[in-house]
């Protein structure tokens, strides 16, 4: 089917098809192509996102736009997801075959670009490393790292993603696209399901704030936001890449932001179509700093220097005892309730609120009011001298911007899981996440240290806290020269003219829950946080599909007991095609808690067809801590 796109250089056409793999599996794909007799490059987005429902609206805006500008846009469901055959697995091996298949099409010039965001970005970088002769360029937005932060196990990032991926993997193929075979495919998937938490709980800890995906041997345009943990990985990609690499870091939620699409098109034109678009003349890093965009070239920038702040000089605390040079840090277990979401999705409750409550549960080191503006750009690092302990523990460091009225705004943070030590002195270095932040004159810098950070980090079993020596502890800040932009052209972006998204009608629940709700049971000394995702509600798609989702995630902990920590997600998903009487409901509950030696996971799944249960299973799992 073809339709005119008068504002674009090309008319476009699209088709649904199945890509055959060597083992007989067929992957469901949708391809948008420019109408031309000349071979064109292909931009492949390869993910578990279910192209006929979950990502359909965004796909229908982005990929026709690429096609209208001379690049075929391709979306492919992973094996065992969406309307593709098979059971989940073999992501990279299948991806290599898909790339070879696309490059061999008569309409393709043999050049492939890989596009991805979140886990899809990490997959794109890994595939580029395996197919350097065919994949000529990558756009990676908000690439995901592992499930540890500074050696500590993430709670928010682990549990919520495990629950979401189990529910998504249990969704059936759509009979509109797979015909009567959908039920057999679905039951086979259900029988093969395993909760993903096992692999995540036993993966090796990473030492930094977020592990970086391996740089691809191809040109990479990396995109992130300062509020997303991937910003550190994006800076490292640019710094370590042997191929040309550029970074855009703004104030965007996860995904591929519309504002960045023209830059991605310039990237594709440069590497896939041999058009000199000037991307190599752009700064290595373009980032949002305060209220303006700045450019830094190269990265690391010569305009950024490291300034050291001693914790017994420029930064001071009121917590130092007169008879002991060590400061004791022991935080209540609910410290971290105002951390915000680990991966913000753009909603108000995702971002950390005023940090004064968190500061009150921490030991704080404050600067004097700054006499002039201070611009931070890069990853701070904290070096601490600790009193040795036989148990180790967790250290969380938050850097805040404190206004004259006391408002405390989070700039960045880092976590470190320390190990037992018997040496006379113990040194610890905490890498904080990269940040771009402008501190106004008259404001103070605050370094807040705590021994707990729930529900971001799964609590350490020991509650003793830690002791630090401020006289041998230093905060290193990456400070950008205030005159760095003098004589440089301003950084600007042209907005894209995208096609309208298909009309997906959203009916929100009549009694909508708060995005984030914190409850303090004073008598029980219990704190509970409940979260409701933006996906809640009923969506009616143009092709007649009706999706209804309801999810509640809850975290609870007792103030003085780290072993009381629990996380639970209840999720109900209903998918209907009323015209053919197709009605599927999935109900999942995932629970995670711990004792002194093990994590204990309980996962329950029930699948119903037209109200009748066709599958139910409960998994009980224990994993050593």
What descriptive keywords fit this protein?
16% helix, 625 residues, alpha+beta, 9-stranded antiparallel sheet, single chain, disordered N terminus, 10 helices, 11-stranded mixed sheet
Write the layout of secondary structure elements.
Layout: E1 2-3, E2 12-20, E3 26-34, E4 40-47, H1 56-68, E5 72-77, H2 91-103, E6 108-117, H3 119-130, E7 135-141, E8 148-149, E9 152-153, H4 156-169, H5 175-178, H6 182-192, H7 197-202, E10 220-225, H8 230-240, E11 245-250, H9 261-272, E12 285-289, E13 292-296, E14 304-310, E15 327-329, H10 356-360, E16 363-366, E17 374-378, E18 381-386, E19 393-402, E20 408-418, E21 426-431, E22 435-439, E23 444-450, E24 466-468, E25 474-480, E26 505-507, E27 516-521, E28 526-531, E29 537-540, E30 546-558, E31 561-577, E32 582-594, E33 598-609, E34 612-624
Count of DSSP-assigned helices:
10
> pLDDT average, as an integer?
90
Strand composition percent: 35-45%
Fraction of helical residues: 10-25%
Number of strands: 34
Distance between the termini: 55 Å
Question: Which strands sit side by side, in order, in the main sheet?
Answer: 1-2-3-5-4-6-7-10-11-12-13
Question: Shape, please?
Answer: globular
Alpha-beta content class: alpha+beta
Largest sheet descriptor: 11 strands, mixed
Low-confidence spans: pLDDT under 50, at least 5 residues? 1-6
Rg over CA atoms, rounded to whole Å, is 25 Å
């Amino acid at each position: 089917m073809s339709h005119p796109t008068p504002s674009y250089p090309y008319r476009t056409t699209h088709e649904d098809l199945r890509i055959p793999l060597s083992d007989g599996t067929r992957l469901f794909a949708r391809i948008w192509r420019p109408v031309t007799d000349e071979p064109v490059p292909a931009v492949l987005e390869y993910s578990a996102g279910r192209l006929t429902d979950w990502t359909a609206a965004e796909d229908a805006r982005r990929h026709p736009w690429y096609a209208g500008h001379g690049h075929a846009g391709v979306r492919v469901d992973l094996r065992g997801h969406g309307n593709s055959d098979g059971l989940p697995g073999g992501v990279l091996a299948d991806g290599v075959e898909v790339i070879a298949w696309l490059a061999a099409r008569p309409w393709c010039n043999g050049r492939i670009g890989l596009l991805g965001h979140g886990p899809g970005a990490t997959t794109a970088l890994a595939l580029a490393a395996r197919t350097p002769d065919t994949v000529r360029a990558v756009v990676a937005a908000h690439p995901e790292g592992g499930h540890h932060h500074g050696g500590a196990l993430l709670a928010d990032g682990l549990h919520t993603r495990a629950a979401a991926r189990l529910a998504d993997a249990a969704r059936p193929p759509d009979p509109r696209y797979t015909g009567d075979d959908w039920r057999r495919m679905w039951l086979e998937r259900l029988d093969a399901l395993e909760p993903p938490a096992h692999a995540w709980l036993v993966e090796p800890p990473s030492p930094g704030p977020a592990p970086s995906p391996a740089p691809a041997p191809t040109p990479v345009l990396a995109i992130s936001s300062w509020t997303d943990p991937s910003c550190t990985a994006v800076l490292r990609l640019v710094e370590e890449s042997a191929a040309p690499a550029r970074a855009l870091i703004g104030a965007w939620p996860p995904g591929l932001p519309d504002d960045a699409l023209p830059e991605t098109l310039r990237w594709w034109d440069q590497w896939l179509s041999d058009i000199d678009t000037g991307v190599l003349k752009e700064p290595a890093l373009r980032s949002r700093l305060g209220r303006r965009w700045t450019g830094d070239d190269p990265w690391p920038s010569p305009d950024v220097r490291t300034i050291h702040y001693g914790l017994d000089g420029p930064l001071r605390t009121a917590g130092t005892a007169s008879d002991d040079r060590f400061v004791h840090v022991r935080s209540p277990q609910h410290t971290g309730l105002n951390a915000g979401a680990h991966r913000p999705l753009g909603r108000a409750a995702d971002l950390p609120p005023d940090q004064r409550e968190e500061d009150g549960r921490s030991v704080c080191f404050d600067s004097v009011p700054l006499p002039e503006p201070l611009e931070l750009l890069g990853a701070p690092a904290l070096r601490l001298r600790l009193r040795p302990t036989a148990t180790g523990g967790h250290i969380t460091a938050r850097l805040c911007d404190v206004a004259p009225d006391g408002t405390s705004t989070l700039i960045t943070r880092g976590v470190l899981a320390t190990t037992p030590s018997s040496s006379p002195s113990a040194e610890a270095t905490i890498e904080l996440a990269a940040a771009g932040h402008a501190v106004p004159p008259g404001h103070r810098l605050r370094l807040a240290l705590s021994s707990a950070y729930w529900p971001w980090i799964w609590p350490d079993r020991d509650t003793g806290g830690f002791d630090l020596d401020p006289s041998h502890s230093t905060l290193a800040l990456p400070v950008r020269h205030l005159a760095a932009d003098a004589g440089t052209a301003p950084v600007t972006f042209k907005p894209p003219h995208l096609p309208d998204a298909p009309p997906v009608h959203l009916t929100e629940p009549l009694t909508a829950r708060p995005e984030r709700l914190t409850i303090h049971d004073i008598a029980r000394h219990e704190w509970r946080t409940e979260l409701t995702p933006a996906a809640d509600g009923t969506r009616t798609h143009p092709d007649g599909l009706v999706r209804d989702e309801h999810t509640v995630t809850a975290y609870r902990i007792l103030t003085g007991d780290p072993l009381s920590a629990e996380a639970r997600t209840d999720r109900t998903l209903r998918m209907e095609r009323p015209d053919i009487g197709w009605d599927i409901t999935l109900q999942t509950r995932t629970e995670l808690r711990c004792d002194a030696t093990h994590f204990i996971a309980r996962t329950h799944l029930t699948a119903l067809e037209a109200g009748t249960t066709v599958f139910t299973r409960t998994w009980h799992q224990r994993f050593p801590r």
